[in-house]
Q: What sequence folds into this?
């Protein structure tokens, strides 16, 4: 158990819908990262927050957004969902910047 | 741009045999390097990390990796593979000057023959 909690574990939704994925980092970790894992793209960095502020952005679509709350949990919002958004979404947390990151079990999103 | 290459998409070894998974990175500064393992349907578990110092690092589950700056490599090794080691292995570099995000290789899937 990494100490990073992601909910829900599985999500099935229809095209055009909006979903919210939630991540609780390890106790004491200030950085939260979101990654998308798909068969064709591999593990892709989406976005990072550090202590409530956006720190780095990757290949995140405009339809996707995220935030980190004062209690340090984070949410990833995916809207206007398309079939191609089906993937495993991971959250990871670390104490600071450049330190080792610990991953949650992921949320498997299926868009039908 | 930073990148990580894992040349072997799939490797099969016999149980008890030794293992080496290759990883090459491209990064302008001193890299922070990691190996993660992912079992089917699971998250990524950190096996080991290299930040600085001794270039041979030990990790969990009997794995070790060696950082070779001259070859831009960080290969993962295990002297004797167990059937439970079958999984996908990812090498990653942390870009500490860009928030510390991890850039991953494409992964190497390891199968273990009885």
A:
């Amino acid at each position: 158990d990494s100490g990073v909690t992601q909910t829900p574990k599985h999500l099935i939704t229809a095209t055009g819908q909006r979903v919210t994925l939630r991540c609780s980092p390890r106790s004491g970790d200030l950085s939260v990262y979101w990654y998308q894992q798909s068969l064709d793209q591999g593990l892709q960095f989406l976005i990072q927050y550090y202590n409530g502020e956006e720190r780095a952005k990757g290949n995140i679509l405009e339809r996707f957004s995220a935030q980190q709350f004062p209690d340090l949990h984070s949410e990833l919002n995916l809207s206007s969902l398309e079939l191609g958004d089906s993937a495993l979404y991971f959250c990871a947390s670390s104490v600071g910047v450049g330190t080792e990151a610990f991953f949650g079990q992921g949320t498997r999103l299926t868009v039908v | 741009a930073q990148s990580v290459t894992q040349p072997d998409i799939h490797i099969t070894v016999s149980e008890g045999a030794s293992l080496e998974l290759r990883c090459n990175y491209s990064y302008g500064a001193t890299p922070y390097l990691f190996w993660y393992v992912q079992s089917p349907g699971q998250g990524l578990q950190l096996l080991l990390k290299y930040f600085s110092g001794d270039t041979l690092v030990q990790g969990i589950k009997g794995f070790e990796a060696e950082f070779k700056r001259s070859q831009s490599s960080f290969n993962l090794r295990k002297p004797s593979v167990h059937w439970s080691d079958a999984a996908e292995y990812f090498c990653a570099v942390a870009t500490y000057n860009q928030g510390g995000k991890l850039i991953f290789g494409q992964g190497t899937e390891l199968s273990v023959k009885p």
Observations:
- The radius of gyration of chain A is 13 Å.
